[in-house]
Each structure stands twice: as C-alpha cells, then as structure tokens.
C-alpha cells in the first residue's frame, strides 16, 4: 500500500514539476515579448520625435538661410553664410535620423560591438547579484536608522 502511494506521489510531483517548468517558460516568453514590444514602441516614439523635430528645425533652417543670404547680399559680406555650414550638418543628421538609414547603421554598429567588443560592455564591479544588492540594502537601512 505504501509503495503504491509513494509511486502516485512521485508521479504527481513529476507532473507538478513539468507544469511549473512549462508555466515558467510561458511566463518568460511573455516577458520577452512584452519587453520587445516596449522597445519597439520606444523606438517608434524616438523616430516620431525626430520627424517632428525635423519639421521645426527645417523651418528654422530655412529662415536662417534666407536671412543670412539676404544679409550677405545686402552688405556684400559672404562671411555671413558661414553659419549655414554647421546648421546644414545638423539638418542632414536630423533628416537621416527621421527618414534615412541612421537607425539601421546604428543597429549594425551595435551588433558589431556586441560581437567583437563585448569587453566594453562590462559593468564596473560586474553584474549585480543578490549578495551585493542585499549588502547595499543593509547599509542603506542602517544609514536611515542612525538618522
């Protein structure tokens, strides 16, 4: 009788472990999908911000270009056109960010850094672990108790 009961308990425990493993895997997959959706939404917001900024900056650049050109022609001083050089570089950067391939190039560069220069990504004192977090928590709670 005891053997049958222990065999039944073992089977139930194995089923429970399989269920827990499946459940944790499903939860992890959901977390990964959620984090990816959040990342995509943040990137979409960044692109939208760049496009909106480009509209305002393009207007500013157009006004400055007209003003500098008229000033240079009126006063016969071509040096008044010099500010257009850095301003045009900023305009090109924003246009590339908003409608060009800047994000694709940045992604490729990031992948290359991850593949060949991963040592640059290491955190000082390594990855936080339970012990280091608990040590910091204890030190902080001691600090607040003393005050």
Can you tell me about this structure?
- It comes from Erpetoichthys calabaricus (Rope fish).
- One of its GO terms (biological process) is positive regulation of plasminogen activation.
- InterPro entries: Plg-R(KT) (IPR019319).
- This is Plasminogen receptor, C-terminal lysine transmembrane protein.
- One of its GO terms (cellular component) is plasma membrane.
- It is a single chain.
- The protein is mainly alpha-helical and 147 residues long.
- Helices cover 83% and strands 0% of the residues.
- It starts with a helix and ends with a helix.
- α1 packs antiparallel against α2.
- It has one domain.
- 2% of the residues are buried.
Write the topology of this structure:
Elements: H1 2-75, H2 84-99, H3 102-116, H4 130-146
Helix pairs in contact: 1-2
InterPro entries: Plg-R(KT)
GO biological process, one term: positive regulation of plasminogen activation
Protein name: Plasminogen receptor, C-terminal lysine transmembrane protein
Keywords:
about 150 residues, mainly alpha
Number of distinct helices: 4
Percent of residues in helices comes to over 70%
- For the record, the count of structural domains works out to 1
Largest sheet: none
The structural class is mainly alpha
Instruction: Please provide the count of β strands.
Output: 0
* Uncertain stretches: none
Series of secondary-structure elements, N-terminal to C-terminal: HHHH
Beta-strand level of the residues, as a percent range? under 5%
Give the overall form: elongated
Put the structure in a nutshell:
With 147 residues, this protein is an all-alpha fold. Helices cover 83% and strands 0% of the residues.
């Amino acid at each position: 009788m005891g053997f049958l009961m222990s065999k039944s308990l073992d089977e139930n425990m194995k089923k429970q472990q399989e269920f827990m493993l499946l459940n944790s895997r499903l939860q992890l997959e959901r977390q990964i999908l959620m984090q990816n959706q959040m990342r995509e939404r943040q990137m979409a917001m960044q692109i939208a911000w760049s496009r909106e900024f480009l509209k305002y900056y393009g207007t500013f650049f157009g006004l400055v270009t007209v003003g500098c050109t008229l000033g240079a022609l009126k006063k016969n001083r071509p040096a008044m056109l010099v500010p257009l050089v850095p301003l045009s570089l900023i305009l090109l950067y924003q246009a590339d960010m908003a409608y060009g391939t800047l994000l694709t190039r940045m992604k490729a560069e990031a992948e290359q850094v991850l593949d060949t220069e991963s040592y640059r990504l290491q955190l000082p004192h390594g990855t936080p672990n339970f012990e280091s977090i608990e040590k910091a928590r204890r030190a902080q709670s001691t600090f607040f108790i003393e005050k």
